Amino acid sequence: MTFEAPDSSVPGVEPGSILDGRVPEGDPRTAWERRRLSYKLVNPNNRRKFRVIVVGTGLAGAGAAAALGELGYDVHAFTYHDAPRRAHSVAAQGGINAARARKVDNDSVDRFVVDTVKGGDFRGREADAYRLGEESVRVIDHMNAIGAPFAREYGGQLATRSFGGVQVSRTYYTRGQTGQQLQIASAQALLRQVDAGTVTLRTRHEMLDLIIDDGRVQGVVMRNLLTGEITAHTAHAVILATGGYGNVFYFSTLAKNSNASAAWRAVQRGALLASPSFIQFHPTALPVSSKWQSKTILMSESLRNDGRIWVPKNPDDTRAPGDIPEDERDYYLERKYPAFGNLTPRDVASRNAHEQIRAGRGVGPLKNSVYLDFRDAIARIGKKKIAERYGNLFEMYTHATGEDPYTEPMRIAPGAHFTMGGLWSDYDQMTSLPGLFVGGEAGWGYHGANRLGANSLLSACVDGWFTLPYSVPNYLAPLLGSQRLPDDAPAVTEALDRTRDRVDRLMSVQGEHGPTYFHRLLGDILYEGCGVERTRETLTTAIEKIRALRERFWTELRVLGDDDRLNQELEKAGRVADYLELAELMCVDALDREESCGAHFRAEHQQDGEAVRDDERWAFVSAWGVPGDGRHVRHAEPLTFDAVPLTRRNYK
User: Fold this and answer.
1) Could you say which DSSP state residue 650 is in?
2) Cα angle at 95 between 62 and 280, to 5 degrees?
3) pLDDT above 90 covers what percent of the chain?
4) Cα(346)–Cα(236) distance, rounded to whole angstroms?
5) Which residues pair with 635 in a beta bridge?
């Protein structure tokens, strides 16, 4: 059957090609095993002849750099942090999934895949989900071996707990600091290779461009954030593991330095961006309490294991939560989704919280949140047990709000969090630009339209430790004997000049507003127009506002300081310039996709408040090209589901 993508009703959108994800034909359960067997190998004595650049030192980047370094490749790793362990992977608190099936609760790799594919609302690759489940077993053993202090049962076995979107216990954790402990272990493994001389690490460097020659990516342009020096670095292959772009919303759970610039520069050089509008709003973020707040704070989804979510039934109820009797509380997730209750997937939980808040039943001073209440859990198992499970999270909440969650409910609200969209890549993690690979949240493949909790740390570890160390050598093997691109090659000079010209342009506007001013305005536009719920009207309005704001940016921006030294305003300005272009594409993608799926909730496509997919027309991944002349070209990769039949999600 010939696949044909539907025409777009969005002005400026043009049809592109049908993409081949290069997924091995046949049973998706054995696809990864068969692909690994087909990969070309590189003789250990030849590995040192190949240089690989890794940008980013989070779980995906640190894992890939450490693994490739230990294999013997000449690895150069870059991070804009002052140390690799400070990468944003530390912020994922609740746990990491694995289909090890050590509990007698009927878990398995197949059940993991069903949960992941269904959780993503059938908008991710089925074969990728199988690789994720298969390698998850090795990930836990590996991270445990290199020092991650996983929680243990009384008898010494690794402990697990449940997370949203599943009915089994497959989430391994280190109290409420799982990402931090995994990142520390991975950073130590990376630094071990630095000490061994196989990895060269450069901190406080930010990627500003790619070097492309002979049709393939052969290096990067970096700016030293301390001195302002712009330098070129060539290699046989480049891996981008630079995280997601959730900070485009300004108020997000991401660290303030997390950004989209490396991935967006790849798009500007011809890479494709898949599903940019698939943004996850975390249901347990802390609500915004002041317009002067710089970001939101993430509270781990693991809290939903024991906390109960509710709002007052009466929209005008101003009583303290402890004064509201049980029969006047609406535990709306338990009421609407009795099978999963408070452990519904994140998109469902966020959409329902958004619905309650918009209906006037929000709580708190700004009535922009819902309650997450531990009263019943404390009465059932005691304060000590709750403190063992979530103590550091409770402390963090108290520090942020001044309130004690042991005695009064937490207040939570949906906050921009994780990007399921990212650079499109084939099954080997290579983008549409030969020689450019992607890992972690910068990619797209596993999560579809909604990521299940505790699958982010897993996907980053699988990419870094157990996918890229196989697929990158397969790409390098035929290049044996080819020399690295010379530092004075025309393509290098062109990339350097292009980067310097862009810095000069940012510095020379000399308007009246700093970059943060424009970022705040952009965030307001996106939350209203392309947030938890979208409509044709809100998206059309958002596109118009973004274009107008981008024009203002390039005439009213003012960057204080100089470009030949530490200048964080210059860093912000470059990132906001990229956000303003990315934001338009996000809205175009959301407007183009005439269906609801996962976190992409178009109000025009729903039934009783639930997302309604259109599998007949939209069972494909939109991968966007941006020629640079105002057009948006939508390429499409068809999605097929052989092991997990297409079905409407049901968590009731």
Assistant:
1) -
2) 85
3) 94
4) 39
5) 623
pLDDT of residue 1: 59
Place of tokens 């958002």: 542
The pLDDT tens digits for 6-39 are 999 999 999 999 999 999 999 999 999 999 999 9
How many Cα neighbours within 13 Å face the side chain of 270? 12
**Contact assessment for residue 272 and residue 625, using Cβ atoms and an 8 Å cutoff:** yes
Tens digit of pLDDT for each residue in 468-501? 999 999 999 999 999 999 999 999 999 999 999 9
Please tell me the distance from the alpha carbon of residue 456 to that of residue 243, in angstroms, as a whole number: 11
Count CA atoms within 13 Å of residue 333 on its CB side.
Answer: 28
Which CA distances in Å does 472 have to 117, 202, 492? 26, 21, 23
Overall average pLDDT of the 419-425 stretch: 98
Domains of the chain: 284-416 (3.90.700.10), 490-615 (1.20.58.100)
- Residues that are catalytic: 346
Show the 3-state SS of 574-636: HHHHHHHHHHHHHHHHHHHCCCCECCECECCCEECCEECCCHHHHCEEEEEECCCCCCEEEEE
Model pLDDT for residues 261-320, shown as the tens digit of each residue: 999 999 999 999 999 999 999 999 999 988 788 899 999 888 999 999 999 999 989 999
| Residue 175 scores a pLDDT above 90 | no
Going by their DSSP bridges, the two strands 199-202 and 74-78 should be labelled as: parallel
Q: Which strands, in side-by-side order, build the sheet including 237-240?
A: 199-202, 74-78, 51-55, 237-240, 436-438
* 22 Rama class: left (phi>0) / alpha (psi -120 to 50) / beta: left
Q: How far apart are CA 75 and CA 48, in angstroms?
A: 9
The pLDDT of residue 222 is above 80:
yes
From the CB of residue 652, how many other CB atoms can be counted at a distance below 10 Å? 10
Cα separation of 583 and 522, whole Å?
A: 8
Q: How far is residue 287's CA from residue 274's CA, in Å, rounded to a whole number?
A: 29
DSSP character at residue 509: -
State how far the Cα of 236 lies from the Cα of 142, in Å rounded to an integer: 28
Radius of gyration of the chain from its Cα atoms, rounded to whole angstroms: 24
Listed in sequence order, the residues at least 6 apart from 282 whose beta carbon sits closer than 8 Å to its beta carbon are: 253, 298, 301, 346, 350, 414, 415, 416, 417, 418
CA distance 209 to 268: 9
Closest among 71, 77, 11 to 42, alpha carbons compared: 71
What 3 state SS string does 413-469 have?
EEEEEEECCEECECCCCEECCCCEEECHHHCCCCCCCCCCCCHHHHHHHHHHHHHHH
Structure-block tokens of residue 275: 């599903």
- DSSP 8-state secondary structure symbol assigned to residue 99: -
pLDDT at 316: 87
Q: For residue 176, what pLDDT band results from cuts at 50, 70 and 90?
A: confident
Q: Whole-angstrom Cα distance, residue 645 to residue 652?
A: 19
Q: CA nearest 526: which of 446, 587, 594? A: 587
Q: Check residue 196 and give its pLDDT.
A: 98
Band (pLDDT 50/70/90 cuts) for residue 652 is confident
